[in-house]
Amino acid sequence: MSRPHPVQVIAVTGGKGGVGKSNVSVNLGIALSQMGRRVILLDADLGLANIDVLLGISAKRNLAEVLSGECDLRDVLVNGPGGVRIVPASSGTQRMTQLSPMEHAGLINAFSELGDQVDVLIVDTAAGISESVVSFLRAAQELLLVVCDEPTSITDAYALIKLMNRDYGVNRFRILANQVRNEQEGKHLFGKLTRVTERFLDVALQYVGMVPYDEAVRKAVQRQRAVLDAYPRAKASLAIKALAEQVDSWPLPTSPRGHLEFFVERLVGSNT
Length: 272
Ligand SMILES: Nc1ncnc2c1ncn2[C@@H]1O[C@H](COP(=O)(O)OP(=O)(O)O)[C@@H](O)[C@H]1O
Ligand SMILES: [Mg+2]
Hints:
Distance between the termini: 28 Å
Largest sheet: 8 strands, mixed
Bound molecules: adenosine-5'-diphosphate, magnesium ion
Shape: globular
Number of strands: 8
Strand content: 15-25%
Structural class: alpha/beta
Radius of gyration: 17 Å
CATH class: Alpha Beta
């Protein structure tokens, strides 16, 4: 057996729906893939605007079938733009935290076979702080919170940070300002969030930058294309590429916990 290979697991989250989590997940995945990283995108949101819809792809097989032993994880992966491979949303993704011991073992096996073919796993989470969302956040190494300049987005991000810190001892969060006008507005938004967290919590927020509000994102969504793919020179695309450069410089996990099978183990084991 080959030595387990470190995989960076990044959960893209934010509390509120509609802030841009799925668009950030997809485009960050494409940008990293264009840089030569092998990326898998796990769609952990069964909601309406999921990745299948965003990219106009249709999944033939899904994780529920892996769990029941009907197929392998390989059969589930869908090729997306730029070489990203996608695990589409399904009841299986939602159920990952409530598996029988058999399914549990099967899933860990399925992912460990994939472990040496992936450098980055991006998990696009659902809105809110449901048990399922929290399980993904607990299991990931990096939490990337997408926030936009609306009071509800800031309060939801705060609630999520507070919960993860208080109940699970997470104290490091990466913050991305989305749909802002410029760099200054992004920093200003970050300032608003840190003012509340500094007062009430013992956490470290790290600003990773901003993605500007850009009509090209909306147009791309309408065309069921990723903005990075359809409009590679749009402002939002350039910002995502800069974000990917940064993400690529984040330290790789060095502990054995930084391997894919451990992520899955933490994920499925988190309710036991
Ligand atoms: N940077 C942006 N500029 C313009 N519109 C955006 C941007 N990011 C997201 N949007 C719009 O917001 C909508 C919701 O984005 P989505 O990624 O589906 O959010 P979430 O996954 O957080 O619910 C998208 O359909 C798109 O129209
Ligand atoms: Mg979404």
